[in-house]
């Protein structure tokens, strides 16, 4: 702890007396400054004990009051007046002004040199700094031993909470709580989800301090909370939150920084190892997609604990071009891996640069944690799209990959966040196509018929719709319209003339039906 005015007063060798501001003696003293200037504030930083003989102050009450106000406004924590030189005693006006501003005023006897007070405070400050360095070094050693143990990050969180005399919590890259100490702090840590989510959207490292109380915590549970993102390459790999009863001291800040560094190293691991693991996972995924499942299973057993088992799906995510797209896909992959890792779910991930921009391939358990994490991530990120295959086995993963690619193409073309293969293979085709493109196609193709219907007899659009819906059956279509079949035949010949196309062509019939259906949407 830094020295305080109270510790200076208690030093009997100094023989100082408190004349005003006795209720504020616990203020920490950051330095002792001696000045005989009428206005020393340009040379002050705040937190000083100012010593003076008052040689230039005079005895004017207004002048003494203005002097005290200047010091108090500058953040001076105490004023010591040396008597016996310019003042035989401390002026009462100075005492009254100090009492009014709550500024501790000390009477320094002539026998006590100012340098003695300076040495006392300097020695205490040196002792504080030595204690801070010693404590920080011991804490760093302790946290390092914890990091090297089998519990790793959890042990760091536990030791950090003890060192700070509060609580600590660790979150993974998706913002999910992964470790907390002591156990009773889980409820408090859980209430920081919104703050963690805000940091998750900012480049790492970044931090936030919640002065006063944790959000949503009752008044009886007041905390000073600091939340810090963990990561070395702008992408947060995790988050650390600590809560203490009082504001964190400089020494505690050293301890917190040491914990952040160790957790960052632990979460990041070595960049080369992480990249090697990613390349190995991508190679295994492509082996499975190529049908070499037996070989992939044999290779993965010792490295990844095996391949995903049971019913699986292939997911292909895409985005635009540029670093932001690659970063968004990288975060999607991280969230899938973290979601699977929390429940021990195996998955394979591959990040690739394709001809149409970056792609992310994921082979995951059907409706598992990783599968759901991918669906959730694309809903949160503008510009991401996801294609999902039908449920499949590892042996059929190659076919599933083609399904996912087709579903992704539909999603990108239609401006949708995700498309499942089942949507491509069943139901109406129209919802899968881009609305603007379909509308433009329909308007262009049917424009001659609509212009005819506005100016001439005979409803060609309605007649064409009835004829196509009855698959070219004249009598049935004429009955639906309430006209003679010869009338309908005349109208269809008029349609062919206006469009310049033959209704005997199957492709023409399909395009016309699509245009008519698009007009109904």
TrEMBL record:
Purine catabolism PurC-like domain residues: 10-125
Residue ranges constituting the PucR C-terminal helix-turn-helix domain according to the UniProt record: 460-518
Protein name: PucR family transcriptional regulator
Organism of origin: Kitasatospora paranensis
């Amino acid at each position: 702890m830094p020295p305080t005015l109270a510790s200076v007063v208690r030093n009997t060798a100094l023989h100082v007396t408190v004349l005003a501001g006795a209720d504020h003696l616990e203020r920490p003293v950051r330095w002792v400054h001696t000045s005989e200037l009428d206005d020393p504030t340009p040379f002050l930083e705040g937190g000083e004990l100012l010593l003076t003989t008052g040689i230039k102050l005079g005895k004017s009450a207004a002048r003494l009051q203005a002097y005290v106000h200047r010091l108090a406004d500058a953040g001076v924590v105490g004023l010591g007046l040396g008597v016996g030189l310019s003042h035989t005693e401390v002026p009462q006006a100075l005492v009254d002004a100090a009492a009014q501003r709550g500024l501790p005023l000390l009477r320094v006897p002539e026998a006590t040199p100012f340098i003695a007070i300076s040495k006392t405070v300097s020695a205490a400050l040196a002792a504080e700094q030595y204690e801070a360095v010693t404590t920080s070094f011991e804490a760093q050693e302790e946290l390092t031993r914890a990091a090297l143990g089998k519990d790793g990050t959890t042990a760091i969180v536990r030791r950090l909470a003890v060192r700070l005399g509060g609580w600590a919590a660790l979150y993974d890259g998706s913002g999910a709580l992964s470790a907390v100490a002591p156990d009773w702090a889980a409820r408090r840590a859980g209430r920081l989800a919104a703050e963690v989510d805000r940091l998750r959207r900012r480049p790492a490292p970044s931090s936030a301090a919640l002065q006063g109380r944790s959000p949503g915590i009752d008044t009886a549970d007041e905390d000073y909370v600091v939340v810090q993102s963990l990561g070395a390459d702008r992408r947060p790999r995790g988050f650390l939150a600590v809560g203490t009863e009082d504001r964190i001291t400089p020494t505690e800040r050293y301890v917190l920084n040491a914990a952040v560094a160790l957790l960052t190293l632990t979460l990041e691991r070595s960049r080369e190892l992480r990249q090697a693991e990613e390349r190995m996972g991508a190679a295994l995924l492509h082996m499975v997609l190529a049908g070499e499942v037996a070989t992939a299973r044999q290779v993965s057993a010792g490295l990844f604990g095996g391949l995903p088992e049971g019913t699986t799906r292939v997911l292909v995510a895409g985005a635009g071009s540029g670093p932001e797209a690659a970063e968004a896909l990288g975060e999607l992959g991280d969230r899938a891996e973290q979601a699977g890792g929390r429940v021990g779910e195996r998955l394979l991930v591959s990040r690739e640069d394709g001809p149409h921009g970056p792609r992310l391939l994921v082979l995951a358990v059907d409706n598992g944690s990783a599968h759901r994490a991918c669906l959730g991530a694309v809903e949160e990120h503008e510009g991401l799209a996801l294609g999902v295959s039908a449920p499949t086995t590892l042996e059929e993963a190659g076919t599933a990959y083609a399904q996912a690619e087709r579903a992704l193409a539909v999603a990108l073309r239609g401006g949708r966040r995700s498309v499942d293969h089942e949507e491509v293979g069943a139901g109406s085709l129209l919802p899968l196509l881009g609305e603007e493109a379909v509308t433009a196609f329909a308007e262009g193709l049917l424009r001659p018929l609509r212009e005819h219907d506005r100016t001439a007899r005979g409803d060609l659009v309605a007649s064409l719709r009835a004829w196509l819906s009855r698959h070219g059956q004249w009598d049935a279509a004429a009955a639906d319209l309430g006209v003679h079949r010869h009338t309908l035949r005349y109208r269809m010949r008029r349609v062919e003339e206006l469009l310049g196309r033959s209704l005997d062509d199957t492709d023409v019939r399909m395009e016309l039906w699509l245009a008519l259906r698009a007009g109904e949407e």
